[in-house]
Amino acid sequence: MSQNLHSAATDGSVTVRRDGDILRVTLDRPAQRNSLSHIMVESFISVLTGAATDDSLRAVHITGAGSDFCAGADWVATNSDAQQRPRTGALLRRIPHLAHRLIELVYTIQLPVVCSVRGWAAGLGCNLALAADFTIAANNATFWEPFVARGFSPDSGASWLLPRLVGLTRAKEMLLLGEKVSATHAADWGLIYRAVDHSELDSASEDVLSRLASGPTVAIGLTKQAIYYGQHATLSQSMTQELFDLELSCRTADFKEGLAAFREKRPPRFRGR
Question: In terms of domain of life, where is this protein from (predicted)?
Answer without folding.
Answer: Bacteria
